[in-house]
Amino acid sequence: MRNVTKQEVHNASIPQLKQLCEEMRKEIFSTVSSCGGHLSSNLGIVELTVALHRVFDFPHDKIVFDVGHQCYPHKLLSGRAEKFHTLRKSGGISGFPKRAESAYDCYDTGHAGTALSAALGIAKARDLKCDKFQVIALIGDGSFNNGLIFEALNSLRILNTNILIILNDNGMSISPTVGGTYEVLSEMKEGAAPIEDIKLFERFGLTYMGVYNGNDFNSLLPALVQAKEKLSEQSVLLHVTTKKGQGYSFCEREPQETHGVSPNTKKATLKEYSSALGDELTNLAHSDKRIVAVTAAMTDSLGLRGFFDAYPDRAFDVGICEEHASVLCAALASEGLKPYYAIYSTFLQRAFDEIIHDVCGQDLPVTFCIDRAGITGADGETHQGIFDLSYLSFIPNLTIAIPKDIGEFRAMLRMSSQYPHPLAIRYPREGIEGQVNALEIGKFEILHSNVSNIILFAAGERCLTIAKNIQLCAQKEGIDFTVINARFLKPLDEELLLSRKEKYIVTLEDNVLIGGLGDAINRFYMNSGKTVRNFGYRDAFIPHGETSALSRDYGLNEEEVLACIREFYARG
User: Fold this and answer.
1) Of residues 25, 80, 244, 429, which has the active-site annotation?
2) Does the active-site annotation cover 254?
3) Active-site residue among 25, 98, 350, 429?
4) Which CA distances in Å does 402 have to 436, 465, 491, 511?
5) Catalytic annotation present for 244
6) CATH code at position 291
7) Which of 51, 89, 264, 495 has its CA 20 to 30 A from that of 570?
8) Is residue 322 flagged as an active site residue?
9) Which of 117 and 185 is assigned the larger pLDDT?
10) Considering the entire predicted model, what is its pTM?
Protein backbone atom coordinates (compact mmCIF):
# COMPACT_ATOMS: atom_id res chain seq x y z
CA MET A 1 0.00 0.00 0.00
CA ARG A 2 1.32 3.45 -0.90
CA ASN A 3 1.65 6.26 1.63
CA VAL A 4 -1.46 8.45 1.78
CA THR A 5 -1.04 12.18 2.38
CA LYS A 6 -2.97 14.20 4.94
CA GLN A 7 -4.41 16.30 2.15
CA GLU A 8 -5.81 13.25 0.39
CA VAL A 9 -7.64 12.19 3.53
CA HIS A 10 -8.95 15.71 4.17
CA ASN A 11 -10.23 16.16 0.59
CA ALA A 12 -11.62 12.66 -0.06
CA SER A 13 -15.33 12.04 -0.57
CA ILE A 14 -17.14 9.53 1.64
CA PRO A 15 -17.00 6.84 -1.10
CA GLN A 16 -13.27 7.50 -1.46
CA LEU A 17 -12.80 7.19 2.31
CA LYS A 18 -14.63 3.86 2.25
CA GLN A 19 -12.37 2.66 -0.54
CA LEU A 20 -9.33 3.75 1.48
CA CYS A 21 -10.64 1.72 4.43
CA GLU A 22 -10.92 -1.39 2.29
CA GLU A 23 -7.33 -0.94 1.06
CA MET A 24 -6.14 -0.54 4.63
CA ARG A 25 -7.99 -3.66 5.76
CA LYS A 26 -6.41 -5.70 2.99
CA GLU A 27 -2.97 -4.43 3.94
CA ILE A 28 -3.51 -5.17 7.64
CA PHE A 29 -4.88 -8.65 6.97
CA SER A 30 -2.08 -9.54 4.55
CA THR A 31 0.70 -8.22 6.78
CA VAL A 32 -0.57 -9.72 10.02
CA SER A 33 -1.08 -13.07 8.30
CA SER A 34 2.60 -12.96 7.35
CA CYS A 35 4.20 -11.24 10.33
CA GLY A 36 1.76 -11.98 13.14
CA GLY A 37 0.23 -9.30 15.30
CA HIS A 38 -3.10 -7.94 16.48
CA LEU A 39 -5.72 -8.47 13.82
CA SER A 40 -9.38 -8.11 14.79
CA SER A 41 -8.92 -4.98 16.91
CA ASN A 42 -7.20 -3.18 14.03
CA LEU A 43 -9.77 -4.28 11.45
CA GLY A 44 -12.48 -2.85 13.68
CA ILE A 45 -10.96 0.58 14.17
CA VAL A 46 -10.16 1.50 10.55
CA GLU A 47 -13.07 3.94 9.95
CA LEU A 48 -12.55 5.59 13.33
CA THR A 49 -8.85 6.12 12.60
CA VAL A 50 -9.51 7.51 9.12
CA ALA A 51 -12.13 9.87 10.56
CA LEU A 52 -9.71 11.08 13.24
CA HIS A 53 -7.06 11.82 10.62
CA ARG A 54 -9.63 13.75 8.61
CA VAL A 55 -10.93 15.90 11.48
CA PHE A 56 -7.69 16.44 13.42
CA ASP A 57 -4.25 17.60 12.36
CA PHE A 58 -1.71 14.96 13.30
CA PRO A 59 1.07 15.10 14.35
CA HIS A 60 0.40 18.69 15.49
CA ASP A 61 -2.56 17.30 17.43
CA LYS A 62 -1.67 14.38 19.69
CA ILE A 63 -3.31 10.98 20.05
CA VAL A 64 -2.49 8.48 22.79
CA PHE A 65 -3.59 4.90 22.13
CA ASP A 66 -4.45 2.93 25.24
CA VAL A 67 -2.52 -0.38 25.09
CA GLY A 68 -1.67 0.53 21.50
CA HIS A 69 -2.31 -2.76 19.74
CA GLN A 70 -5.00 -1.00 17.66
CA CYS A 71 -2.58 1.53 16.12
CA TYR A 72 -1.95 -0.21 12.75
CA PRO A 73 -4.39 1.98 10.76
CA HIS A 74 -2.79 5.06 12.34
CA LYS A 75 0.61 3.85 11.17
CA LEU A 76 -0.71 3.32 7.64
CA LEU A 77 -1.95 6.93 7.56
CA SER A 78 1.21 8.47 8.98
CA GLY A 79 3.81 7.83 6.32
CA ARG A 80 4.57 4.21 7.24
CA ALA A 81 2.38 2.34 4.75
CA GLU A 82 5.26 1.47 2.42
CA LYS A 83 7.21 -0.02 5.35
CA PHE A 84 4.24 -1.75 6.93
CA HIS A 85 5.37 -5.14 5.61
CA THR A 86 8.21 -4.96 8.19
CA LEU A 87 5.68 -5.00 11.07
CA ARG A 88 7.12 -6.65 14.22
CA LYS A 89 10.25 -7.74 12.34
CA SER A 90 13.70 -6.90 13.66
CA GLY A 91 14.54 -3.35 12.59
CA GLY A 92 11.01 -2.86 11.23
CA ILE A 93 7.84 -1.16 12.41
CA SER A 94 6.75 -1.86 15.96
CA GLY A 95 3.34 -3.33 16.70
CA PHE A 96 2.81 -0.54 19.25
CA PRO A 97 3.20 3.25 19.21
CA LYS A 98 6.84 4.30 19.48
CA ARG A 99 7.99 7.90 19.84
CA ALA A 100 11.36 6.99 18.33
CA GLU A 101 9.61 5.65 15.22
CA SER A 102 7.49 8.61 14.18
CA ALA A 103 6.40 12.09 15.24
CA TYR A 104 2.84 10.79 14.87
CA ASP A 105 3.43 8.54 17.91
CA CYS A 106 3.49 10.97 20.81
CA TYR A 107 3.62 8.45 23.66
CA ASP A 108 4.82 4.84 23.97
CA THR A 109 2.13 2.43 25.16
CA GLY A 110 1.74 -1.31 25.53
CA HIS A 111 -0.13 -1.89 28.80
CA ALA A 112 -3.78 -1.06 29.44
CA GLY A 113 -5.09 1.93 31.33
CA THR A 114 -2.28 4.45 30.78
CA ALA A 115 -3.69 6.59 27.95
CA LEU A 116 -5.88 8.92 30.00
CA SER A 117 -3.14 9.81 32.49
CA ALA A 118 -0.72 10.36 29.60
CA ALA A 119 -3.19 12.50 27.66
CA LEU A 120 -3.83 14.65 30.72
CA GLY A 121 -0.10 15.14 31.23
CA ILE A 122 0.45 16.12 27.60
CA ALA A 123 -2.50 18.52 27.70
CA LYS A 124 -1.33 20.14 30.92
CA ALA A 125 2.15 20.59 29.48
CA ARG A 126 0.50 22.20 26.43
CA ASP A 127 -1.35 24.64 28.66
CA LEU A 128 1.71 25.56 30.70
CA LYS A 129 3.70 26.22 27.53
CA CYS A 130 0.80 28.18 25.96
CA ASP A 131 0.73 25.84 22.97
CA LYS A 132 -2.35 25.21 20.84
CA PHE A 133 -3.18 21.65 19.87
CA GLN A 134 -5.75 19.00 20.72
CA VAL A 135 -5.08 15.90 22.79
CA ILE A 136 -7.01 12.66 22.31
CA ALA A 137 -7.02 9.51 24.44
CA LEU A 138 -8.35 6.52 22.50
CA ILE A 139 -9.43 3.87 25.02
CA GLY A 140 -11.11 0.49 24.54
CA ASP A 141 -13.96 -0.69 26.74
CA GLY A 142 -11.72 -3.43 28.17
CA SER A 143 -9.18 -0.87 29.35
CA PHE A 144 -11.95 1.29 30.78
CA ASN A 145 -12.22 -1.25 33.63
CA ASN A 146 -8.65 -0.52 34.69
CA GLY A 147 -8.23 1.30 37.99
CA LEU A 148 -5.67 3.69 36.54
CA ILE A 149 -8.40 5.10 34.27
CA PHE A 150 -10.46 6.05 37.30
CA GLU A 151 -7.46 7.56 39.06
CA ALA A 152 -6.96 9.76 36.01
CA LEU A 153 -10.67 10.66 35.81
CA ASN A 154 -10.51 11.67 39.44
CA SER A 155 -7.80 14.25 38.65
CA LEU A 156 -9.48 15.70 35.56
CA ARG A 157 -11.00 18.67 37.38
CA ILE A 158 -7.88 19.15 39.51
CA LEU A 159 -5.64 19.45 36.46
CA ASN A 160 -8.09 21.87 34.82
CA THR A 161 -7.33 21.00 31.22
CA ASN A 162 -9.37 19.85 28.22
CA ILE A 163 -8.94 16.58 26.34
CA LEU A 164 -11.04 14.34 24.12
CA ILE A 165 -11.56 10.80 25.40
CA ILE A 166 -12.79 8.42 22.73
CA LEU A 167 -14.25 5.26 24.20
CA ASN A 168 -13.95 2.59 21.51
CA ASP A 169 -16.54 0.08 22.64
CA ASN A 170 -16.42 -3.30 20.90
CA GLY A 171 -17.33 -5.43 23.91
CA MET A 172 -13.89 -7.08 23.90
CA SER A 173 -10.34 -6.87 25.09
CA ILE A 174 -8.44 -10.14 24.63
CA SER A 175 -11.44 -11.83 26.22
CA PRO A 176 -15.01 -10.49 26.34
CA THR A 177 -15.26 -7.45 28.61
CA VAL A 178 -16.74 -8.17 32.04
CA GLY A 179 -17.76 -6.26 35.15
CA GLY A 180 -19.91 -3.40 36.33
CA THR A 181 -18.36 -0.81 34.01
CA TYR A 182 -19.12 -3.06 31.06
CA GLU A 183 -22.74 -3.38 32.17
CA VAL A 184 -23.08 0.40 32.33
CA LEU A 185 -21.59 0.79 28.85
CA SER A 186 -23.90 -1.92 27.51
CA GLU A 187 -26.90 -0.05 28.89
CA MET A 188 -25.68 3.11 27.20
CA LYS A 189 -25.34 1.31 23.87
CA GLU A 190 -28.85 -0.02 24.20
CA GLY A 191 -30.25 3.37 25.18
CA ALA A 192 -31.34 1.98 28.54
CA ALA A 193 -28.81 3.67 30.82
CA PRO A 194 -30.29 5.69 33.71
CA ILE A 195 -29.48 9.39 33.64
CA GLU A 196 -27.32 8.87 36.76
CA ASP A 197 -24.78 6.92 34.68
CA ILE A 198 -24.27 9.82 32.30
CA LYS A 199 -24.18 12.28 35.19
CA LEU A 200 -21.37 10.27 36.74
CA PHE A 201 -19.11 11.13 33.79
CA GLU A 202 -20.23 14.74 34.00
CA ARG A 203 -19.31 14.85 37.71
CA PHE A 204 -15.75 14.02 36.66
CA GLY A 205 -15.80 17.08 34.40
CA LEU A 206 -16.69 15.47 31.07
CA THR A 207 -19.35 16.20 28.51
CA TYR A 208 -20.72 12.85 27.38
CA MET A 209 -21.49 12.31 23.69
CA GLY A 210 -22.79 9.00 22.46
CA VAL A 211 -23.44 6.45 21.29
CA TYR A 212 -22.12 6.69 17.69
CA ASN A 213 -21.38 4.01 15.12
CA GLY A 214 -17.60 3.99 14.80
CA ASN A 215 -17.71 2.08 11.50
CA ASP A 216 -20.07 4.57 9.79
CA PHE A 217 -18.63 7.83 8.46
CA ASN A 218 -22.06 9.45 8.27
CA SER A 219 -22.46 9.04 12.03
CA LEU A 220 -18.84 9.41 13.03
CA LEU A 221 -17.56 12.48 11.16
CA PRO A 222 -20.19 14.95 12.45
CA ALA A 223 -19.72 13.62 15.99
CA LEU A 224 -15.95 14.17 15.84
CA VAL A 225 -16.39 17.69 14.46
CA GLN A 226 -18.84 18.52 17.24
CA ALA A 227 -16.56 17.04 19.89
CA LYS A 228 -13.61 19.04 18.57
CA GLU A 229 -15.64 22.26 18.82
CA LYS A 230 -16.58 21.50 22.42
CA LEU A 231 -12.93 21.10 23.41
CA SER A 232 -12.50 24.86 23.55
CA GLU A 233 -14.70 24.85 26.64
CA GLN A 234 -14.52 21.41 28.27
CA SER A 235 -13.28 17.85 28.11
CA VAL A 236 -15.42 15.43 26.11
CA LEU A 237 -16.10 11.71 26.35
CA LEU A 238 -17.14 10.46 22.90
CA HIS A 239 -18.62 6.96 23.09
CA VAL A 240 -18.44 5.02 19.82
CA THR A 241 -19.10 1.39 18.98
CA THR A 242 -17.01 -0.60 16.53
CA LYS A 243 -17.14 -4.21 15.37
CA LYS A 244 -14.00 -6.15 16.16
CA GLY A 245 -12.81 -7.90 12.99
CA GLN A 246 -14.92 -5.63 10.74
CA GLY A 247 -14.83 -6.66 7.08
CA TYR A 248 -13.59 -10.23 7.55
CA SER A 249 -16.36 -12.64 8.48
CA PHE A 250 -14.17 -15.11 10.36
CA CYS A 251 -12.62 -12.33 12.45
CA GLU A 252 -16.08 -10.93 13.19
CA ARG A 253 -17.32 -14.35 14.32
CA GLU A 254 -14.17 -15.22 16.30
CA PRO A 255 -12.76 -11.97 17.72
CA GLN A 256 -10.99 -13.83 20.55
CA GLU A 257 -9.24 -16.23 18.19
CA THR A 258 -8.10 -13.39 15.94
CA HIS A 259 -7.18 -10.80 18.56
CA GLY A 260 -3.54 -11.80 18.37
CA VAL A 261 -2.28 -13.86 15.43
CA SER A 262 1.06 -15.66 15.24
CA PRO A 263 2.93 -16.25 11.99
CA ASN A 264 2.71 -19.85 10.90
CA THR A 265 6.23 -20.87 11.95
CA LYS A 266 5.63 -23.06 15.01
CA LYS A 267 7.39 -26.37 15.26
CA ALA A 268 5.00 -29.26 15.63
CA THR A 269 7.02 -30.70 18.54
CA LEU A 270 6.38 -27.65 20.74
CA LYS A 271 3.38 -27.37 23.04
CA GLU A 272 2.02 -24.42 24.99
CA TYR A 273 2.53 -24.28 28.73
CA SER A 274 -0.89 -22.64 29.05
CA SER A 275 -2.56 -25.83 27.82
CA ALA A 276 -0.78 -27.81 30.54
CA LEU A 277 -1.85 -25.23 33.13
CA GLY A 278 -5.50 -25.60 32.19
CA ASP A 279 -5.35 -29.39 32.17
CA GLU A 280 -3.60 -29.71 35.51
CA LEU A 281 -5.70 -27.15 37.37
CA THR A 282 -8.91 -28.68 36.08
CA ASN A 283 -7.79 -32.13 37.20
CA LEU A 284 -6.61 -30.89 40.59
CA ALA A 285 -9.83 -28.98 41.18
CA HIS A 286 -11.87 -32.14 40.74
CA SER A 287 -10.63 -33.54 44.05
CA ASP A 288 -9.65 -30.28 45.79
CA LYS A 289 -12.56 -27.89 46.25
CA ARG A 290 -10.24 -25.20 47.61
CA ILE A 291 -8.75 -24.54 44.19
CA VAL A 292 -9.91 -21.39 42.37
CA ALA A 293 -8.54 -19.72 39.24
CA VAL A 294 -8.17 -15.98 38.66
CA THR A 295 -7.24 -14.08 35.49
CA ALA A 296 -7.21 -10.47 34.38
CA ALA A 297 -9.09 -10.56 31.04
CA MET A 298 -7.03 -13.38 29.52
CA THR A 299 -8.98 -16.57 30.14
CA ASP A 300 -8.30 -18.24 26.79
CA SER A 301 -4.77 -16.96 26.25
CA LEU A 302 -3.72 -18.49 29.55
CA GLY A 303 -5.34 -21.87 28.92
CA LEU A 304 -8.12 -21.54 31.49
CA ARG A 305 -11.22 -21.91 29.31
CA GLY A 306 -11.64 -25.57 30.31
CA PHE A 307 -11.39 -24.69 34.00
CA PHE A 308 -13.90 -21.84 33.62
CA ASP A 309 -16.33 -24.17 31.85
CA ALA A 310 -15.93 -26.98 34.40
CA TYR A 311 -15.96 -24.83 37.54
CA PRO A 312 -17.70 -21.51 36.77
CA ASP A 313 -18.30 -20.79 40.47
CA ARG A 314 -14.58 -21.12 41.19
CA ALA A 315 -13.26 -19.14 38.19
CA PHE A 316 -12.90 -15.36 38.18
CA ASP A 317 -12.06 -13.05 35.27
CA VAL A 318 -11.84 -9.61 36.84
CA GLY A 319 -11.06 -7.67 33.66
CA ILE A 320 -7.87 -5.69 33.07
CA CYS A 321 -7.33 -5.13 36.79
CA GLU A 322 -4.10 -6.88 37.71
CA GLU A 323 -3.72 -5.22 41.11
CA HIS A 324 -7.27 -6.05 42.13
CA ALA A 325 -6.77 -9.66 41.03
CA SER A 326 -3.75 -9.99 43.34
CA VAL A 327 -5.59 -8.66 46.38
CA LEU A 328 -8.59 -10.84 45.52
CA CYS A 329 -6.30 -13.90 45.51
CA ALA A 330 -4.82 -12.89 48.85
CA ALA A 331 -8.25 -12.51 50.40
CA LEU A 332 -9.48 -15.81 48.97
CA ALA A 333 -6.41 -17.51 50.41
CA SER A 334 -6.94 -15.84 53.79
CA GLU A 335 -10.25 -17.70 53.99
CA GLY A 336 -8.78 -21.10 53.24
CA LEU A 337 -9.05 -21.31 49.45
CA LYS A 338 -6.17 -22.09 47.10
CA PRO A 339 -5.99 -19.40 44.39
CA TYR A 340 -4.03 -19.74 41.15
CA TYR A 341 -3.44 -16.41 39.44
CA ALA A 342 -2.48 -16.91 35.79
CA ILE A 343 -0.89 -13.87 34.16
CA TYR A 344 1.78 -12.83 31.66
CA SER A 345 5.10 -11.83 33.19
CA THR A 346 4.93 -8.31 31.77
CA PHE A 347 1.48 -7.69 33.28
CA LEU A 348 2.35 -9.05 36.72
CA GLN A 349 4.68 -6.06 37.08
CA ARG A 350 1.57 -3.93 37.55
CA ALA A 351 0.72 -5.74 40.79
CA PHE A 352 4.13 -5.43 42.41
CA ASP A 353 2.94 -3.68 45.58
CA GLU A 354 0.10 -6.14 46.08
CA ILE A 355 2.46 -9.12 45.72
CA ILE A 356 4.61 -7.69 48.49
CA HIS A 357 1.98 -6.27 50.82
CA ASP A 358 -1.08 -8.47 50.43
CA VAL A 359 0.21 -11.88 49.36
CA CYS A 360 3.74 -12.29 50.68
CA GLY A 361 3.39 -9.92 53.63
CA GLN A 362 0.65 -12.20 54.95
CA ASP A 363 2.43 -15.40 53.80
CA LEU A 364 -0.68 -16.56 51.94
CA PRO A 365 -0.70 -19.64 49.66
CA VAL A 366 -1.32 -17.90 46.35
CA THR A 367 0.31 -19.49 43.29
CA PHE A 368 1.31 -17.08 40.52
CA CYS A 369 1.44 -18.87 37.15
CA ILE A 370 3.66 -16.52 35.16
CA ASP A 371 3.31 -17.12 31.42
CA ARG A 372 5.40 -15.59 28.61
CA ALA A 373 8.45 -15.31 30.85
CA GLY A 374 11.70 -14.35 29.16
CA ILE A 375 11.97 -12.80 25.72
CA THR A 376 8.60 -13.00 23.97
CA GLY A 377 9.72 -11.53 20.66
CA ALA A 378 7.61 -9.54 18.28
CA ASP A 379 5.57 -7.40 20.71
CA GLY A 380 8.71 -5.60 21.82
CA GLU A 381 9.81 -3.67 24.88
CA THR A 382 6.48 -3.52 26.70
CA HIS A 383 5.86 -7.26 26.48
CA GLN A 384 9.26 -8.88 27.09
CA GLY A 385 9.00 -10.91 30.31
CA ILE A 386 12.61 -10.40 31.35
CA PHE A 387 12.24 -8.72 34.75
CA ASP A 388 10.17 -11.11 36.89
CA LEU A 389 13.05 -13.00 38.50
CA SER A 390 14.54 -9.66 39.52
CA TYR A 391 11.43 -8.00 40.93
CA LEU A 392 10.32 -11.16 42.74
CA SER A 393 13.66 -12.43 44.07
CA PHE A 394 13.98 -10.11 47.06
CA ILE A 395 10.44 -10.55 48.42
CA PRO A 396 10.31 -12.51 51.71
CA ASN A 397 8.12 -15.64 51.96
CA LEU A 398 8.01 -16.11 48.17
CA THR A 399 9.24 -19.31 46.53
CA ILE A 400 10.27 -18.96 42.86
CA ALA A 401 10.23 -22.00 40.57
CA ILE A 402 11.51 -22.26 37.00
CA PRO A 403 10.56 -25.54 35.28
CA LYS A 404 12.91 -27.12 32.77
CA ASP A 405 10.02 -28.31 30.56
CA ILE A 406 6.25 -28.80 30.53
CA GLY A 407 6.50 -32.12 32.36
CA GLU A 408 8.29 -30.49 35.27
CA PHE A 409 5.79 -27.61 35.16
CA ARG A 410 2.95 -30.11 35.61
CA ALA A 411 4.78 -31.62 38.58
CA MET A 412 5.25 -28.17 40.13
CA LEU A 413 1.55 -27.47 39.81
CA ARG A 414 0.68 -30.75 41.50
CA MET A 415 3.17 -29.99 44.25
CA SER A 416 1.79 -26.48 44.68
CA SER A 417 -1.67 -27.68 45.66
CA GLN A 418 -0.30 -28.67 49.08
CA TYR A 419 2.26 -25.86 49.41
CA PRO A 420 1.24 -23.48 52.25
CA HIS A 421 3.17 -20.38 51.14
CA PRO A 422 3.29 -17.92 48.21
CA LEU A 423 4.69 -19.52 45.06
CA ALA A 424 5.64 -18.12 41.66
CA ILE A 425 6.15 -20.47 38.71
CA ARG A 426 7.54 -18.73 35.63
CA TYR A 427 7.65 -20.28 32.18
CA PRO A 428 7.87 -19.41 28.46
CA ARG A 429 5.03 -19.71 25.98
CA GLU A 430 6.08 -23.01 24.40
CA GLY A 431 8.21 -26.00 25.17
CA ILE A 432 8.55 -29.76 25.15
CA GLU A 433 6.68 -32.16 27.41
CA GLY A 434 9.80 -33.75 28.90
CA GLN A 435 10.40 -36.24 31.70
CA VAL A 436 9.84 -35.57 35.40
CA ASN A 437 12.30 -36.59 38.06
CA ALA A 438 11.91 -36.25 41.82
CA LEU A 439 10.85 -32.73 42.75
CA GLU A 440 11.46 -31.01 46.06
CA ILE A 441 11.14 -27.34 46.98
CA GLY A 442 14.50 -25.59 46.81
CA LYS A 443 16.38 -28.51 45.26
CA PHE A 444 18.28 -28.34 41.99
CA GLU A 445 18.61 -31.26 39.57
CA ILE A 446 21.92 -32.62 38.25
CA LEU A 447 21.31 -33.25 34.54
CA HIS A 448 24.88 -34.17 33.61
CA SER A 449 27.78 -34.85 35.94
CA ASN A 450 31.40 -34.65 34.91
CA VAL A 451 34.62 -34.60 36.88
CA SER A 452 35.99 -31.26 35.76
CA ASN A 453 36.58 -27.80 37.16
CA ILE A 454 33.56 -26.30 35.39
CA ILE A 455 29.87 -26.33 36.40
CA LEU A 456 27.01 -24.65 34.58
CA PHE A 457 23.74 -23.65 36.24
CA ALA A 458 20.84 -22.98 33.87
CA ALA A 459 17.32 -21.83 34.79
CA GLY A 460 14.37 -22.71 32.59
CA GLU A 461 13.79 -24.54 29.34
CA ARG A 462 15.29 -21.95 27.02
CA CYS A 463 18.56 -21.75 28.94
CA LEU A 464 18.84 -25.50 29.42
CA THR A 465 18.45 -25.92 25.66
CA ILE A 466 21.31 -23.46 25.18
CA ALA A 467 23.37 -25.37 27.76
CA LYS A 468 22.81 -28.66 25.94
CA ASN A 469 23.81 -27.14 22.61
CA ILE A 470 26.98 -25.70 24.13
CA GLN A 471 27.82 -29.00 25.78
CA LEU A 472 27.54 -30.90 22.50
CA CYS A 473 29.93 -28.44 20.84
CA ALA A 474 32.35 -28.54 23.76
CA GLN A 475 32.40 -32.33 23.88
CA LYS A 476 33.48 -32.42 20.24
CA GLU A 477 36.53 -30.43 21.39
CA GLY A 478 37.22 -32.78 24.29
CA ILE A 479 35.76 -30.42 26.87
CA ASP A 480 33.04 -31.39 29.33
CA PHE A 481 31.36 -29.86 32.39
CA THR A 482 28.56 -30.50 34.87
CA VAL A 483 25.08 -29.16 34.02
CA ILE A 484 22.58 -28.27 36.74
CA ASN A 485 18.88 -27.55 36.35
CA ALA A 486 18.56 -24.54 38.68
CA ARG A 487 14.81 -24.95 38.99
CA PHE A 488 14.40 -22.82 42.12
CA LEU A 489 15.77 -19.31 42.36
CA LYS A 490 14.35 -19.03 45.84
CA PRO A 491 15.21 -20.85 47.97
CA LEU A 492 18.55 -21.68 46.39
CA ASP A 493 19.81 -25.22 46.80
CA GLU A 494 22.49 -24.18 49.27
CA GLU A 495 23.30 -27.78 50.17
CA LEU A 496 24.22 -28.55 46.57
CA LEU A 497 26.07 -25.25 46.12
CA LEU A 498 28.17 -25.94 49.22
CA SER A 499 28.99 -29.43 48.06
CA ARG A 500 30.37 -28.48 44.64
CA LYS A 501 34.14 -28.46 44.29
CA GLU A 502 34.31 -26.88 40.82
CA LYS A 503 36.41 -23.73 40.57
CA TYR A 504 34.59 -22.17 37.62
CA ILE A 505 30.88 -21.34 37.72
CA VAL A 506 28.72 -20.37 34.71
CA THR A 507 25.07 -19.29 35.03
CA LEU A 508 22.41 -18.89 32.33
CA GLU A 509 19.01 -17.25 32.80
CA ASP A 510 16.23 -15.95 30.57
CA ASN A 511 16.05 -12.71 32.58
CA VAL A 512 18.02 -9.51 33.04
CA LEU A 513 21.24 -10.14 34.92
CA ILE A 514 20.56 -7.66 37.70
CA GLY A 515 18.72 -9.38 40.54
CA GLY A 516 18.35 -12.80 38.95
CA LEU A 517 19.89 -16.26 39.30
CA GLY A 518 23.42 -15.09 38.53
CA ASP A 519 23.27 -12.40 41.18
CA ALA A 520 22.04 -14.91 43.75
CA ILE A 521 24.82 -17.41 42.99
CA ASN A 522 27.41 -14.62 42.93
CA ARG A 523 26.35 -13.59 46.42
CA PHE A 524 26.44 -17.17 47.65
CA TYR A 525 30.00 -17.77 46.39
CA MET A 526 31.34 -14.36 47.41
CA ASN A 527 34.86 -14.62 48.87
CA SER A 528 34.92 -18.36 48.12
CA GLY A 529 37.78 -18.17 45.63
CA LYS A 530 35.55 -19.44 42.83
CA THR A 531 35.25 -17.62 39.51
CA VAL A 532 31.65 -16.92 38.47
CA ARG A 533 30.54 -15.78 35.00
CA ASN A 534 26.89 -14.84 34.46
CA PHE A 535 24.94 -14.83 31.21
CA GLY A 536 21.53 -13.22 30.87
CA TYR A 537 20.10 -10.07 29.36
CA ARG A 538 22.01 -6.86 29.73
CA ASP A 539 20.60 -3.70 31.28
CA ALA A 540 18.39 -2.66 28.36
CA PHE A 541 14.84 -2.60 27.07
CA ILE A 542 14.74 -5.25 24.38
CA PRO A 543 12.92 -4.29 21.15
CA HIS A 544 10.70 -6.41 18.92
CA GLY A 545 12.19 -9.12 16.74
CA GLU A 546 12.66 -12.86 16.43
CA THR A 547 13.00 -14.50 19.83
CA SER A 548 16.19 -16.52 19.33
CA ALA A 549 17.95 -13.63 17.57
CA LEU A 550 17.05 -11.20 20.35
CA SER A 551 18.18 -13.68 22.97
CA ARG A 552 21.52 -14.04 21.21
CA ASP A 553 22.00 -10.32 20.61
CA TYR A 554 21.13 -9.22 24.14
CA GLY A 555 23.21 -11.60 26.21
CA LEU A 556 22.47 -15.31 25.71
CA ASN A 557 24.90 -15.94 22.89
CA GLU A 558 25.93 -19.58 22.58
CA GLU A 559 29.27 -18.66 21.03
CA GLU A 560 30.11 -16.32 23.90
CA VAL A 561 29.19 -18.93 26.51
CA LEU A 562 31.24 -21.57 24.68
CA ALA A 563 34.19 -19.17 24.54
CA CYS A 564 33.90 -18.74 28.29
CA ILE A 565 33.88 -22.53 28.77
CA ARG A 566 36.98 -22.83 26.61
CA GLU A 567 38.71 -20.11 28.63
CA PHE A 568 37.94 -21.83 31.93
CA TYR A 569 39.06 -25.19 30.55
CA ALA A 570 42.36 -23.69 29.42
CA ARG A 571 42.95 -22.28 32.90
CA GLY A 572 42.64 -25.77 34.33
Assistant:
1) 244
2) no
3) 350
4) 14, 14, 12, 11
5) yes
6) 3.40.50.970
7) 495
8) yes
9) 117
10) 0.89
